[in-house]
Amino acid sequence: MKQASIRQRTLGITFSKGEATACLWAPQLEKAELLLHSQQAVLPLEKDKWGYWRTTSKKIAPGERYSWRLNGERERPDPASLSQPEGPHQPSQALDPASWRWSDRSWQNLPLEDYIFYELHTGTFTPEGTFAGIIQKLDYLKELGITAIELMPVAQFPGERNWGYDGVYPFAVQNSYGGARGLQQLVDACHQRGLAVVLDVVYNHMGPEGNYLNEFGPYFTDKYNTPWGKALNFDDAWCDGVRRYFIENALMWFRDFHIDALRLDAVHAIKDFSPTHFLRELKQQVNELMQETGRPYYLIAEVDLNDTRFIDPLEKGGYGLDAQWIDEFHHALRVSAGQEPTGYYADFAGIEHLAKAYQDAYVYDGQYSPHRHKFFGTRAEQQPGRQFVVFSQNHDQVGNRMLGERSSQLYPFEMQKLLAGAVLVSPYLPMLFMGEEWAETNPFLYFVSHTDAELAEAVRKGRRAEFAHFHAQGEAPDPQAETTFEQSRLQWQLQQQEPHQTMLRWYKALLEQRKKQPALRQLNRRQLEVSHNQKRQTLQL
Amino acid sequence: MKQASIRQRTLGITFSKGEATACLWAPQLEKAELLLHSQQAVLPLEKDKWGYWRTTSKKIAPGERYSWRLNGERERPDPASLSQPEGPHQPSQALDPASWRWSDRSWQNLPLEDYIFYELHTGTFTPEGTFAGIIQKLDYLKELGITAIELMPVAQFPGERNWGYDGVYPFAVQNSYGGARGLQQLVDACHQRGLAVVLDVVYNHMGPEGNYLNEFGPYFTDKYNTPWGKALNFDDAWCDGVRRYFIENALMWFRDFHIDALRLDAVHAIKDFSPTHFLRELKQQVNELMQETGRPYYLIAEVDLNDTRFIDPLEKGGYGLDAQWIDEFHHALRVSAGQEPTGYYADFAGIEHLAKAYQDAYVYDGQYSPHRHKFFGTRAEQQPGRQFVVFSQNHDQVGNRMLGERSSQLYPFEMQKLLAGAVLVSPYLPMLFMGEEWAETNPFLYFVSHTDAELAEAVRKGRRAEFAHFHAQGEAPDPQAETTFEQSRLQWQLQQQEPHQTMLRWYKALLEQRKKQPALRQLNRRQLEVSHNQKRQTLQL
What we know:
2 copies of one chain form a homodimer. The first copy, chain A, has 541 residues and is α/β, with parallel strands linked by helices.
């Protein structure tokens, strides 16, 4: 029970040899049943000693709508549902991911060194706001020169407008994006063009609407508090069921959706004091899957702790993750470009910190951080450049501004070019945020489409309160308004106009150089010399 | 600022070269002053960038009563006070621990292998309930055959009756026990007799009464919850000041009080996700002090995580603690002796688990624990026997029973002898609990003497509620009643009576054999063979 199977998903409904197995983890329930909606059938389930309820049946076919009935009372969708065709509150739909016929046999994942990420939000990337829409842009992206698309989270959320971090069904692909099939099609199409696919997954919290997990079992613990309330339970009583839930999830993306890398959201909020940290167990399981399939898969963490334990190899006692984001490069770069040193930027001194980021990855690797009010960080001397992802913008750094301005709205044209260059000559893995390559002028705002009116109002108020001290700039746009979402869409027609055409040529040229010049492909920081001149605001690599 | 000085305490009032330095950590105060009560003087203090307020003066002599005045308003005792002659709510008293003239020059700490612990509670060990009282019993203890006394916590608590875990001045020795001087005298007397001294210290919480820490600075964080509420702040903003506070404390006991080992209370409740865990930093600092003084000091943890990271060496990424308690040995032993498998005993199966404890130290080293509802523990193959402390009773296991019964009240005489033998032939460090060697018949009850009436009532109610399901056995004794404390005192006169005389002879004989027989002194578990017979309830080493 402890180990998730690497060969197949076991949670939810799975198909094998002409029959279906239904499996639900709900260790503290007295009774659980499976409701098949089209047949109006009720299947009884039996619980094993670990709290997994199971039945096997030939009655369940892919496409069947189903729910669990808990203690003979409430009907709930499946926490491990692969499809929520009518959103988070309605029945789940059985789905067999193995029925997709892959055309990517010849695809080989890229070496991590060759990743050039392009972060995109499915809903606002194209007019369609779907995976199918993305497919139409793949030739463009290939020509641009990036090597991997990174999808912001696609787990089912309420409504049709969300960044993705409010997902409540980690196994179900957002219905309005095109669902599981749409994602498989997208990945297949990427691989056919030689593009890798990175998926952003959220294992540190659940969204505020449509989260029924508490009714199934102790998914949360009050041992730890997080910005989202009680922490997901990775080390308290019953934690094995929760750990398995997320490990099965990660394995599914690699195995059944051919995802090449996972971007693990804010792993510092995965609170786990077990002897084996959840992330380490995850890496061990992914290693086994790699053995089995013969394909490499990468785990990339968003983490703000400047602690190499996350990316240290398993044999050195680390969690073994392949790479991590470094926001500090971004902060130092922004301050060098003129960003006012307020908020978390207060810790950054501009060009000298940018030089440090080029040289040492972590800017704070043991110094006192005035913003954090503590000594902060460890040295990252042993870690090669391919373990760090850098960027001059991303969804968070843009969207967490009240008005969601991209660099195009904040910096002169030449400075924008410099920012692009700073990222693309770095000895790290570069990442672009969709549209920056043509200096998109639309903002990327914070938007939601909660169906719970009270929650929507709370989010609206929260957003206004957060930015209350910026009142001189007006009021924070309403996250719930459809216009806020529409304003955040990319304007592809800008590519035909100046100065956007020029910017796009600049990015293409930089990306080409990045791939062509051995000095730029080389991510060995030991062979890098960095010098800077504070007075003249110059930096030499 | 980050590193505590290993050479001297810096917090509170310290004396050097004819003058005194007063130092207070209070990073968020606007103003802090030092009040000297006998002189009715007010000394202004200056704050450095780390939040330490300081002044140097010739006005302050040892013995001076003083307080801090915070923001010109409240007067508070010193969180780093060495003496609270009138308890936790009244002014502190300056004290120079270096003025004690030690007579233990020739004392050399014992090898850890040779430790045989005798846990005692100063207040109930003797009729006097003081350190001076203990000194009168040292010859007896030496003759008994133990090699180290382990004092339950002595940090200042409210009133005169407390186990010690409600201490609120980690640097101040309980006034009613004899204060700092009394403790120095006791340690000196122990060392003159060749006995080591272990001190129980509490770095995981503060007592509920007389804790003014919050008024000084962010000593607590709401990132983590503990059984005592908010956790002490070891990794949140401003944590460096808190870490230093406790590290200075540990160093003080070794350096200024010649303590030989610290027993660190419930370290699993020290919540710290920093790159360098507080315990690891503590060990590094103690190592430096050992370099400086040329004396060995030990750190022994109470920890219930079955995770070797606490006792793994620093160079293997562990926290480097010298040893840890293993309650599981106790639980397995008790169930083997007939204890009903309820509560946390439910995880233990008797003789086969006792055999496992002898062989593997941790009974749960990866198996599913029904009581904890999760897979639990790591293997402890690499750890030598000297890293584990075992016992058949201790203050917790006795005192956390509603009626505080010792083994003498629970098991037949012959079984008590067997329990003693089981501990003393183990390949681990044995510990006795005061009085068990003569089968003391008095209980060791839970007692407090809070001066806050509401709190006393809350504790009383809490205790009754905790044991509500034992109502058949009567009501839980009132922790606040002086009689509860008096009933818990040892009855030394029993030593002259049977069957107590016989038991005492038995313990002495066992202890003598333990020290004499090479096979029993050898703590190498690789040379140990354990076999057991479930049916016949026998176990062979």
